[in-house]
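Dear Dr. L.,

I hope this message finds you well. Following up on our conversation about the binding site, I have prepared a predicted three-dimensional model of the protein together with LNRAV4D5. For your records, I am including the exact sequence and ligand specification that went into the calculation, followed by the structure tokens. Please feel free to forward this to your student if that is useful.
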Amino acid sequence: MEVKAFYWKGDHLLLLDQRELPEREVWLKLTDHLQVADAIKSMAVRGAPAIGCVASYGFILGIKKEDPQKVYQVLRNTRPTAYNLFWALERMMKALKEGKDPEKEAMSIEQEDYNANRRMGELGKDLIPDGANVLTHCNTGALATAGWGTALGVIRSAHYSGKKVHVFVNETRPYLQGSRLTAWELLKEGIPHTVITDMTAGFLMKKGLIDAVLVGADRITKRGDVANKIGTYTLSVLAKAHGVPFYVVAPTSTFDPNIESGEDIPIEERSEEEVKSFKNCTLAPKESRALHLAFDITPAENITAIITEEGIKYIKP
Ligand SMILES: CSC[C@H]1O[C@H](OP(=O)(O)O)[C@H](O)[C@@H]1O
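The resulting structure of the complex is given below.
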């Protein structure tokens, strides 16, 4: 059975609490938009496409009792970087204004995202040679989307096409989306993988042990700059220095048509506490300051290709 991050149940949303993985599978029953907003803000659910889908269902729950504009704003204000959130909420508000069934709209958003992931998997799998060692950052799998995944979806598709693919999984401090979530997904399906600390990737590239890097995206600008999990930019510089192909995999719902340069993308800054401790484990003196930028910007010049459900855009030869 495929991994799912959420299930819409008509009058509530069942959400897998990703803060509890990999030790526990805890499902939250969300019955109003405030609970959904809190789940997004606290990263019980995360991942640009998943956030868009879940916010759409939160919008349905909210407008049963609240003014749609208020509901829209509450959900919109949860996290500032992932464009899919705004794209989905604008689509829901438009559907409402046009007299369409909002529940059908939200379910279409979910189904379209899943279909896009499968399509990107089919397109992207041919870029992964049989026997390849690939590196991925953060979590871009079923937990970050409506299912299957974006970058991890390409890796899944390559695996299920019969190719031998091994995945180096960047742990991705501080939330550990890689070591906690990507490894959990890959283990469930028996896809070979090795968790590494974030600082290991460059040395593996120098030793010729990485054949390609595949990452997701939270927002992509008109010129092809990409906002993604913090550490992505560093990986892109290392990949460029070592001649390793660097692929971004994202549906068209991640593309922001209003922004030219990545410098104009708002970068979420999260609590210092999330850097200085993890699940009650102290990682730094409580008196020390910490800087917690949740995303960074990778310039188009560092990207080999962007894979979308509409095709593969080669940024550079
Ligand atoms: C399939 S895109 C997932 C994207 O979202 C992640 O961020 P977060 O876990 O903070 O929501 C990361 O940037 C991934 O690439």
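In brief: Residues 46-49, 138, 140, 144-145, 150, 177, 215-216, 218, 228-229, 294 surround LNRAV4D5 (CB under 6 Å).

With kind regards,
A. P.
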